[in-house]
Amino acid sequence: MEKKEVIVEVKHMDKRFGSTVALNDVSITVRRGEILGLIGENGSGKSTVTSIIAGMQKADGGEMLYEGREWHPSSMINALENGIGMIVQETGTVPGITVAENIFLGEIEQFKKGVINRKQMMRKAGEILDSIGASHIKPQMITGALDLQDRKLIEIAKVMSKNPQILVVDETTTALSQIGRDIIYKIMEKMKEENKAVVFISHDLDEIMNVCDSLTVLRDGKIIVTFAKEEFNEDLIKTSMIGRELQGDYYRSDYDGRYDSEVVLEVQDGNLGDQLIDFNLQLHRGEILGIGGLSHCGMHALGKVLFGAEHMAKGKVLCHGQMVKDEAFAMKNRIGYVAKDRDVESLCLNASIKDNIAAGGLDQFAVSRFLILPGREKAYVQKQIDGLSIKCQEMNQYVSALSGGNKQKVVFGKWIGRGSEILILDCPTRGVDIGVKQAMYQLMYQMKKEGKSIVIISEEMAELIGMVDRLVVMKDGRISKEFERSNTLSESDIIQYMI
Amino acid sequence: MSKEKIKKQIMNLAPVVGLLLLYGVFMIMGTVKDINIAYGMKAIINQSIVVAVVATGAIFIYTLGSFDISLGASVATSALLGGIVYNATGSLLCMFLANIGVAVFISLFNSILASVFNLPVFVTTIAMLSVLNALVLVLIKVNGTGSEIAVPAEAVKALDTTGFKVLILVLFLVLCIFVFNFTKIGRMQKMLGGNEICARLTGISGKKMAIIGFAMAGIGVGLGAFVSTIYAPTLTKNTASSVGMDVIIAIVFGGMPVSGGARSKITAAVIGAFSMTFLGQIMTLMNFNSGIGQMVKAVIFILVVFVATFNQRSKMLPR
Predict the structure, then answer these.
(1) In this predicted structure, what is the pLDDT of residue B152?
(2) Residue A448 dihedral angles phi and psi, to the nearest 5°
């Protein structure tokens, strides 16, 4: 096969964070007209190497060449100005300002003629949003009022407005619905056609195999192998990623969708704007209930309503027959909630692993539910770290320094540690590698077998089909279809009721 | 030990090292200038204690990521009403209870008002600052000589000892350390300051925690008013006039993160209050006038905030 022109070359790169080796002698070649996939478990070094290319941080050793010249970007802004743009895994927008101000953050001077010409700035922002297919986002909107997907699209618009030669997409698509994903796929295809390059990081193996021309696997900071498109093989890639064959089941293997008849949580005649309309739902003891649909169908609001974090205009949520008034009531009744927007809603990033896990279980380890004894607190947190195999240097490490999968494990630890009997999981495996995903699925299955009840809200059909006893499909705030667990259920059966 | 851990330790120890350094400079300069060191230390303790006590309570507010600009005015109001109560009853216990009661009431009123109108607490404290300043003038006019309210010096003389004042500070500090580090309240407050949304979704009530935080701050203000009255029983409109600003500076000097959250620490208040007083004394020994002294404090304040937040900003800006 004809080798295309090299645009970026990383040679023997090393990077350490304290005692952790993030990159060890990593060499990568990015070529024009290609989409290079990077895949590996959480903490394997994918984001580290791309963030160094994109100027977010510096390497400890090695060499980088960009278009044949030595490449030492001083910042992400510097890299973007020179043609390398990156869309980061987590939120990269400022919430309290308008969409247009976010797009032109740091560059507002260009609209200054004495005072800022806001009209011109809004018009230009609108054009950029149109060009990436995000016309539904208005430039004058306050960014904080938008959902995760739209905020991600704003970041994409900001990067694309600079017409980059290389685009790094770091684990972005899992935050997006199919519509959002299609926008990114189109951008990536267009860049490829224009003889530019894309580096694409994703934990979704199907997606990465579909989209990429070649695929590099990283593990523990080292390059394991690079596959050309014609060599793509799902099992081989998985084995390369985790260094062994995946043992046991990925999803649950049984098709026994039975559960207890006792209703543990229910919504009665719920109404919440256009998110929930005359909505009724029951969750039973020992049931894994799946909620699927498009991003704006109301399912994410439903998760909050079930936890008492959002109040409906009409209707009620009952847990064992008692009204769920607020989050504190929900927790008292052993309900746990893993939010979709992990960094904003589920974690305090500037706090330690210990602080985050302990916050969920204060009433569990505190003496007389009030007094905190450091020894008991540490033992409680250590149990969760060990039980969930959270990769960390120590429990006092800041959560912000953890990889996506390990952050999610901390969130799980917060809720599992306190012995939650009902778990509401909104996109629980977003940004999580297959090894961690498998562990989470097996944990959910184990909880079901222990008689606990789980609601999985997800945009990943395979996950829902693979895990749930009963699947409720939502469309425009209503239930459009309900499926029982079956080995014949397919994604196409479900999708027709979502759209 | 990793580089990051060493950096973290250095940042943690910096305020204590700063305090020791200032103490060292004061001792050297005091010796060189041949001043009475023991007397100077006593003066430093007297000056620091009111700010240290008020700041210790105020840490509970700062941890929530909020701040109260009316603390100084609250100390003055509480002291004046305490003075009026003493003059009416002749009982120091009644004065003490009035100091605490008035301060806690003002503090709670601030937080409840913010809660009712759904406003950031610091907004209501700005309004409260004006109200309390006016109230101080009214109280002096109606209940005093027109320019002061005086508690007889003999009545408080027995308590005006360094030991007693230090005892009050130590007892309150121990109480606050206990509540902050060894009860659910401290953990919840830190979580709220770190991420309000996450805290709410972990069942932590922001309103309840704000009320507890302001109540603790109120106790600190009440104690500050009591100590202030013991030290200077003639209460005027200038009583505790600089306390409000001194508390803010002391808390930052002591290494408290300006945004609150998980890295908040009670001891920052005491370390900061004493550091600030040492700095003031050193400048006096250097014959700086008070205007220059204030300017130096302001510059150091900005430097401390700059250094403390540098790491965070350098990480955020490229994004």
Answers:
(1) 92
(2) -60, -45
Low-confidence ranges of chain B (pLDDT < 50): 312-319
Kindly list the residues from chain B whose CB atom is less than 8 angstroms away from the CB atom of residue A351: 190-191, 194-195, 261-262
Task: Measure CA A250 to chain center.
Answer: 19
The sign of the torsion formed by the CA atoms of B135, B137, B141, B143 equals positive
Mean pLDDT computed over A211-215: 93
d(C-alpha B267, C-alpha B56), whole Å:
7
Whether A224 has a pLDDT exceeding 60, the answer reads yes
- Please state, in angstroms and rounded to a whole number, the distance separating the CA atoms of residues A413 and A391: 13
Measured between alpha carbons, how far is B318 from A92 in angstroms, rounded to an integer? 10
Residue A14 has phi, psi (to 5 degrees) of -125, 145
Helix axes B290-316, B267-285, angle to 10 degrees: 140
- Give me the residues paired with residue A170 across strands: A201
* Nearest in space to A273 (alpha carbons), one of A59, A477, A128: A477
Q: Which of B53, B142, B48, B152 is nearest to B103 (CA)?
A: B53
Q: What pLDDT is stored for residue A198 in this prediction?
A: 95
Q: Write down the H helix ranges in A194-253.
A: 205-211, 234-242
Terminal-to-terminal C-alpha distance of chain B: 29
Cβ contacts (< 8 Å) between A358 and chain B: which residues? 187
Residue A354: what pLDDT? 95
Q: Domain spans of chain B?
A: 51-269
Both structure tokens of A367? 């003496």
Phi, psi of A214 (to 5 degrees): -145, 160
Interface of A with B (CB under 8 A): 17-19, 55-56, 75-77, 88, 92, 307, 309, 326-328, 330-332, 337, 339, 344-352, 355, 358-360, 362-363, 366, 369-373, 393, 414
A374, A396 contact by CB (below 8 A)? no
pLDDT (0 to 100) of residue B317: 31
Sort out which chain A residues have CB atoms less than 8 A from B2's CB and list them: 18-19, 393
Angle made by CA atoms B56, B59, B65, in degrees to the nearest 5: 170
- Topology of the domain covering A6-242: Rossmann fold (3.40.50)
Domains A6-242 and A263-498 fall in the same CATH topology: yes
Token pair of A37 as six digits: 């996939």
The neighbouring-strand residues paired with A85 are: A167
Domain extents for chain A? 6-242, 263-498
DSSP state letter for B237: T
Indicate the burial class of A268 (C-beta count within 10 angstroms; 0-12, 13-18, 19 or more): middle
| ipTM of the shown complex | 0.83
Provide the 8-state DSSP code for A352: B
Q: How many CB pairs under 8 A join A and B?
A: 97
Answer whether residue A468 shows pLDDT above 70. yes
Residue A42 identity: N
**Residue A264 structure tokens:** 């543990």
Report pLDDT for B309: 61
- Any idea which residue has 């009475």 for tokens? B36
Q: Are B255 and B239 in contact (CB under 8 A)?
A: no
Inter-chain contact A331–B197, Cβ cutoff 8 Å? no
Rounded distance between C-alpha atoms, residue A240 and residue A225, angstroms: 7
Asked if A38 and A200 touch (Cβ cutoff 8 Å), the reply is: yes
Convert the pLDDT of each residue in A80-117 to its tens digit.
989 999 988 766 788 889 999 999 887 788 888 788 88
| pLDDT above 50 (res A217) | yes
Q: Which of these, B193, B243, B240, lies nearest to B213 by C-alpha position?
A: B193
CATH topology of domain A263-498: Rossmann fold (3.40.50)
SS3 B167: helix
- Three-state SS for B123? helix
Cα A238 from Cα A211, distance rounded (Å): 17
Place of tokens 């700062």: B62
pLDDT of B131 reads: 93
